[in-house]
């Protein structure tokens, strides 16, 4: 259940630190849909991170293929793999989204 929280947090922190740190937040823009990000980059990064979590999770009900490669005493790597995959793909996707939609 907690995998998605770390992926979401990773994307939100990257958005803040990499793309908004010098601009700040214009709180009135939240009421204008045309000034908000489209969200394609965030959704894509989230889904890629989610897949990373699934293939590396080690739970009683499911053991992913990456977790199986580690061995029978493997640890649950879902949070770390999912977050790192999202962390790696979000910045270039967000940059492309900014170039395409300019918001």
TrEMBL record:
<keyword id="KW-0812">Transmembrane</keyword>
<dbReference type="GO" id="GO:0022857">
    <property type="term" value="F:transmembrane transporter activity"/>
</dbReference>
<keyword id="KW-1133">Transmembrane helix</keyword>
<dbReference type="GO" id="GO:0005886">
    <property type="term" value="C:plasma membrane"/>
</dbReference>
<dbReference type="InterPro" id="IPR026030">
    <property type="entry name" value="Pur-cyt_permease_Fcy2/21/22"/>
</dbReference>
<keyword id="KW-0813">Transport</keyword>
<feature type="transmembrane region" description="Helical">
    <location>
        <begin position="77"/>
        <end position="96"/>
    </location>
</feature>
<keyword id="KW-0472">Membrane</keyword>
<protein>
    <submittedName>
        <fullName>Vitamin B6 transporter</fullName>
    </submittedName>
</protein>
<feature type="transmembrane region" description="Helical">
    <location>
        <begin position="36"/>
        <end position="57"/>
    </location>
</feature>
<dbReference type="GO" id="GO:0000329">
    <property type="term" value="C:fungal-type vacuole membrane"/>
</dbReference>
């Amino acid at each position: 259940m907690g995998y998605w929280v770390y992926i979401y947090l990773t994307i939100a922190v990257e958005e803040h630190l990499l793309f908004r740190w010098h601009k700040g937040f214009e709180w009135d823009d939240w009421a204008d849909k045309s000034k908000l990000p489209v969200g394609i980059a965030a959704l894509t990064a989230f889904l890629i991170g989610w897949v990373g979590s699934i293939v590396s999770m080690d739970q009683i009900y499911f053991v992913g293929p990456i977790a199986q490669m580690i061995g029978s005493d493997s640890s649950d790597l879902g949070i770390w793999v999912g977050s790192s995959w999202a962390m790696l793909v979000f910045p270039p996707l967000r940059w492309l989204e900014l170039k395409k939609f300019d918001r």
